[in-house]
């Protein structure tokens, strides 16, 4: 994942192109983010006023200039928890981004997918999303398991691991990726 989303657009292109060239020389795929998600990830908080939706025109230039394989988009998705009012994803923007990216052979990624309804996930899949990041739900399952310890640390850790695996398995079935390499 090449994340230059905090950089000015042209700098993001330069940074991502460099990473893309290095990765492709080793036959590795490159995912890059265009737009900026609000919320908190790894103790880094991006305030709502700093967030930016992915611009379709910029996406075309970004894909053409960087040679990426996957584009992580911002369509109103957030890192961490959604507000009480729920997610407000711009599915029309996602459709436009898919129309562009599919012509270029680039697949779409949605970060901040924890807390999305099954219907919304299916709608995103129909509109071209091929990878979802759901870290918040996995971490929550782990922490919830630790709050209810069952004795020895070894058993507590095993229980926490199983709780995470259950969330991941559920999401893999929802995303249609279960049983695939």
Automatic annotation (TrEMBL):
<dbReference type="Pfam" id="PF01116">
    <property type="entry name" value="F_bP_aldolase"/>
</dbReference>
<dbReference type="GO" id="GO:0016832">
    <property type="term" value="F:aldehyde-lyase activity"/>
</dbReference>
<dbReference type="GO" id="GO:0008270">
    <property type="term" value="F:zinc ion binding"/>
</dbReference>
<dbReference type="InterPro" id="IPR000771">
    <property type="entry name" value="FBA_II"/>
</dbReference>
<dbReference type="GO" id="GO:0005975">
    <property type="term" value="P:carbohydrate metabolic process"/>
</dbReference>
<dbReference type="InterPro" id="IPR050246">
    <property type="entry name" value="Class_II_FBP_aldolase"/>
</dbReference>
<dbReference type="InterPro" id="IPR013785">
    <property type="entry name" value="Aldolase_TIM"/>
</dbReference>
<protein>
    <submittedName>
        <fullName>D-tagatose-1,6-bisphosphate aldolase subunit GatY-like</fullName>
    </submittedName>
</protein>
